[in-house]
Amino acid sequence: MAKRKKNLSSKYQPWVDARKRFHLSHAHIQMARELGMNPKKLGGKANHKQEPWKAPLPEFIEELYFKRFGKIRPENVRSVEQMVKDKKQKQSERKARKQEEQESEPVCDSEKVACLDDDLPF
């Protein structure tokens, strides 16, 4: 039975693929994203078996994260899927709030000029 890919945007799908390909945790993916790493370029940093002087990718990400932010892990670790879900929920709430605001405002008809500002100089 074939696995289905989740419908993620092209912005987030490479991170999910990188997590599976390089066996990274959600925390490592979040750290790499906060560091501004490119998920497509992680392969060059992950060849510690061919180049023994390189650290394994999870250790490399942790080391860079500690250097930059001074802490070992992010305080709030969320998966990429959770970030997408939260973003979609926030967008739908914002859209609903905006819809309510538009419905509560008075509607101006062509005959009703009272709702337009007559104080405009132009």
Write a concise keyword list for the protein shown above.
5 helices; mainly alpha; single chain; 122 residues; 50% helix
Could you explain how this protein is built, in words?
The chain has 122 residues and is an all-alpha fold. It has a domain at 13-85. The protein is 50% helix and 0% strand. The chain has helices spanning 13-21, 26-35, 42-45, 57-69, 80-104. The longest helix has 25 residues, at 80-104. It is elongated, with a radius of gyration of 24 Å. It starts with 12 loop residues before the first helix and ends in an 18-residue tail after the last helix.
Characterize the biggest β-sheet: none
- The radius of gyration over CA amounts to 24 Å
Unreliable stretches, pLDDT < 50, 5 or more residues?
Answer: none
* Separation of the first and last Cα atoms: 67 Å
Report the strand count.
0
Order of helices and strands: HHHHH
The shape is: elongated
Layout of strands and helices, then pairs:
Blueprint: H1 13-21, H2 26-35, H3 42-45, H4 57-69, H5 80-104
Helix pairs in contact: 1-2, 2-4
